[in-house]
Model the fold of this input.
Amino acid sequence: MTLRGIVTLLEANRPTVMTESGTEYLCYLRGKVRRVSGRILVGDQVELEPTEGREAIITRVLPRQLQLERPPVANLTGIFACFSLNHPTGNLELLDKRLVLAALSGIAVEIVVTKSDMADSVKELDEMVQLYRSIGYRVWVVSVRTGQGVEPWLSTEREGIWVLTGESGVGKSSLLHAVLPHAVIETGGLSKIDRGQQTTRWVRLLKIREFWLADTPGYTALETVVTRAEDIKSKFFEWDDARCRFPNCVHRGEPGCAVQQGLMDGTYASSRYRSYCLMVDQWVKRWGV
Ligand SMILES: Nc1nc2c(ncn2[C@@H]2O[C@H](COP(=O)(O)OP(=O)(O)OP(=O)(O)O)[C@@H](O)[C@H]2O)c(=O)[nH]1
Ligand SMILES: [Mg+2]
Ligand SMILES: [Zn+2]
Done:
């Protein structure tokens, strides 16, 4: 009997697969499959043959739609870019980087501002939310402590495989726990220096109505395909209608640059421009293009 399923967990290299009927099997990989498909990933669609009890052998790994180096999840549809303003202190540069890399990889991204009850300044929080909404991002503001925003975030229709990303301690696992109180999810505290403690060790997919959601261990960046540094500017969508004198302007001091002008008159956020420059510089250093 051959069944179809999805890899929901890889623990100590043993995949757990959930079949279409919702049964979970602890699996082995047939040697040939391992040789042909290489490393199996959470999110892989597979065929399996049950052996005894809740055990099965994976006989085939279906072709992957998409695979990034990080997070190590196959067939990703989108990411939730989790960001806390304070405790731990949010890093806008890392947030912007994730937004750009998601766009470059062709996956969806939504921003989840976590731990809203811990924000030191409501004004700062509002400004941040407004900035990203004005660029066109979907932004959620949630607190698992007060329950704010969790329900609207969750009840939005989605499909495919989504992953929670963000610095250690931003509250990814806590959010998952608030949504699925019966699932076994590790959550941790913050260390004395107000950083997370890398509590989550495994990637695990959980079914939420029509979509899959995975927690990840404190990933801040996505690892994506190599592109040219000049592709980065097109992912700062708010600059789309900036009409610079030179069409190939990279907004780094050229004369007649509409982005520089917009920064000066306050049309564009300086934090975004800073992220842009840092990202381009890192890119050139790493890839040379
Ligand atoms: N006040 C408050 N604390 C929160 C909230 N969400 C999470 N926390 C706390 O923040 C700490 C870290 O939360 P986790 O959910 O473990 O963070 P994580 O993002 O999963 O961290 P890693 O697994 O290390 O990547 C825990 O002590 C949580 O109780 C929130 O909305 N409000
Ligand atoms: Mg966690
Ligand atoms: Zn320009």
About this structure: The radius of gyration is 21 Å. The longest strand covers residues 3-11.
